[in-house]
Please model this.
Amino acid sequence: MSAYRSLGRNPTQILQKIKESLDRLNEKMDVMIEIQKNNQKGSQDIPDVLDVMTLLSLPDHLRKTAVTISRLDQATAEEVAEQTKRARAVESGYLNQLVMMGYLKKERRGRKAYFYIEK
Amino acid sequence: MGKIVAFHSYKGGTGKTLLSVNLATTYAGRGRKVCLFDLDFRAPSLQTTFKTDDAEYWLNDYLNGVCDVKKVLNHVSQKHMRKGELSVGLANPSTEAIRDISGKDRKWEMKALGRLLALKDSFLNEMEFDYLIWDTSPGLQYSSINAIVSADVALVVTTIDASDIEGTHRMIHELYDLFDSKTGILMNKVPVEIVSSQTGKRKLRKQFETIHGLPILEMVPCFCDVLRAGGTYIFTEEKPEHPFTKIVGRIATKIERF
Model:
């Protein structure tokens, strides 16, 4: 609540802050759901290898991102977005989900974040 | 920009190699720059068709990261072509190589997928090929699924055999629908009496398009002349006036517009 208090009494700012928090929460929930789905399929013994069988098990939105990274070898969210014709912010979310699921690695170089498959 | 076309099927012996070889030579005959890859690592066959015993590097070497893909290309234009350019990339037919590729793990298959996906840039953009045609192994194997995922157009060759129809149907809905490749069906070895009448042909086409939910690009009758040739020569080159050659020509035109 202290963060909201510092915003004063502007309800738009408070609502905006709440929306941002909910978006972040949703993103984390998506990742948890994906991880849980994979565990339910009994894939605990399968290593996190982004091969074609793993691609088949991914939901459509993540599969498109994962295939693009496989083709580009390594790329920023912006470069992936150029290929998939989706928004940079959307690709950034999907790439981070793939990192959390253990399929991609992320490395910061200067101001840019590069995503790649560990080989 | 050019296209990567992958030939695949649920069962073996449907005519993938026959159709891919003849399609590649048809495009080259039309003045296109074409490359044909043998991605059937468990039963390689293009070295027999093109009688190339002098291959120094194989596609196995490219996928193993041993050499650049350019080293794998065998130029066969002088032997077979007039107008265009045709190169072939061969799979190593030695028992040792087949055994080696059968024992690869998931991590290797993941790298192989990356290398196949990279061919889109190297062949179609840098080397300016018009067509890269892949003859894959049948069924749901790593090498063929990797190829389908990396291709722009996937052509499923099927026959009227009941188990082939059922398997193809399942494969399309559980595999092809998940990826972005444009897919078409080629019905091969269709009994001549079915396709000899327009009504019979229309009926069969409608029936199969309903089953698979995909367009039937062509229905190729079972030609005894083609079977008799036994893959000893490239049929469309030797028999330019044969109905089979005309059908392959129509397939080539349809893929161009696909």
